[in-house]
Amino acid sequence: MRIELSDSPGALARVTVRLASADCNVLALQVIPVPGGVLDEIVVQAAPGVLPADLIDAIRTEGGKCVGITRADVRDLVDEPTAVLRAAGMALSDPSRTAEALRQVLSADAVTHGEAADGQVQLGDLAARRGWSPFTQVELARGQALLDLLDAPAPAMRGVLSDDGVALVLRPGTNDDEDAVAGLHTRCSMKTLFNRYHSGMRTVPRRWLHRLLNPPRGTTMLAQCADQVVALGQLLHTGTPTSAEVSLLVEDSWQRRGVGTALLGALAADARAAGFQELVAWCLPSETSLVRTAARAGLDTTTRREDGLLRVSIAPRGRALSNPIATVVAEKTR
Fold first, then answer.
1. Residue 251, class by beta-carbon neighbours within 10 Å (0-12 exposed, 13-18 middle, 19+ buried)?
2. Count of beta carbons in the 10 Å neighbourhood of residue 288
3. Which of 37, 64, 291, 308 has the most crowded Cβ, counting Cβ within 10 A?
């Protein structure tokens, strides 16, 4: 029950005594700040035969007002900060469950994607509804904080384990990496380079290195093992506010070991934090490795032929873990 009481000493105590006289046990109490005062939320185990109307009458008898009442379950007895942290952890590990995490944080009846209708509130691209009691500003701020956490920029340097347990670091590229990136291209086969650049080349021209590491409209991320750069990924703005172009280059000996999956997942997390709704990649028609990599990262894709190439559209918010680094680490440390 959510109740409003007069701002006087002992008001809540008198309500709990009144409930106790009806053989009702107060199991939990939460005080919620609201404009002009507070709202008391209490979880009550009602005695057999006691109806919700009886509880409302007991509150009114002590000068209180019942703002909302609904059936509770065991989850309502969990410490509030603990419940919020658990919901945040669920959404971080599986972005497809963001709506469910927000529903738990808000104690909402339902949270759906789309515009809010009458009786709903809008948080980001989600609409929340609760019939038994209006949302308070504190609750809405808590829900928005959850969404802000999920959209926060990823850390600059991230650790990852390959599928066979080798430790790597994902980090932004800098001018000091020119020699390392040149070495990466030298160790790549002509087939790998052709799939990436769609032209026959044995090594990358030196004048390209600065542009690879400092793209004028995007970012470059490197995967490094010990002192060697073994993979490179780029996220480039296309001029369309909701779309960015993504590309990967993974050294032959590191392919099919989860490095490209981790790199693409990290780039997708950065793209989501930047507000992009689509990642676009251009592949040779016979090259499907990027589609497989996106699937391993839990990212949905659609493809179509365009200008003799395969256009791959990737949704940066995945159905599974959008940042596969954490997945790989969890698998190896379990």
1. buried
2. 13
3. 64
On whether both 221 and 274 belong to a single domain, the answer is yes
Shared domain for 284 and 164, answered yes or no, is yes
User: pLDDT by residue (tens digit) across 197-228?
Assistant: 988 877 788 888 988 999 988 999 999 999 99
Residues 142 and 37 in one domain: no
Number of CB atoms found within 10 A of residue 200's CB: 8
Residues 70 and 118 in one domain: no
Residue 46 DSSP code: P
CA distances from 96 to 44, 257, 297, 317 (A): 34, 25, 13, 8
What tokens does 14 get? 């008198």
pLDDT digits (tens, 9 = 90+) for 160-198: 999 999 999 999 999 999 999 999 999 999 999 999 998
DSSP string, 91-136: HHH-GGGHHHHHHHHHT-SEEEES---TTEEEETTEEEE-SSSPPP
Are the C-beta atoms of residues 317 and 331 closer than 8 Å to each other? Answer: no
User: Could you tell me if 212 and 173 are in contact, meaning their C-beta atoms sit under 8 angstroms apart?
Assistant: yes
Determine the structural domain holding residue 123 and report its residue range: 78-150
Q: Which residues pair with 232 in a beta bridge?
A: 222, 249
Q: Phi/psi of residue 197, each to 5°?
A: -105, -5
What does residue 53 show for φ and ψ, rounded to 5 degrees?
Answer: -65, -35
Domain boundary pick from 125, 150, 175: 150
What pairs with residue 172 in β-bridges? Answer: 221
| 283 contacts 245 by C-beta, under 8 angstroms | no
Q: How far apart are CA 164 and CA 162, in angstroms?
A: 5
Same domain, 32 and 110: no
The amino acid sitting at 291 is V
Q: Are residues 209 and 110 in the same domain?
A: no
Contact between 318 and 279 under an 8 Å Cβ cutoff? The reply is no
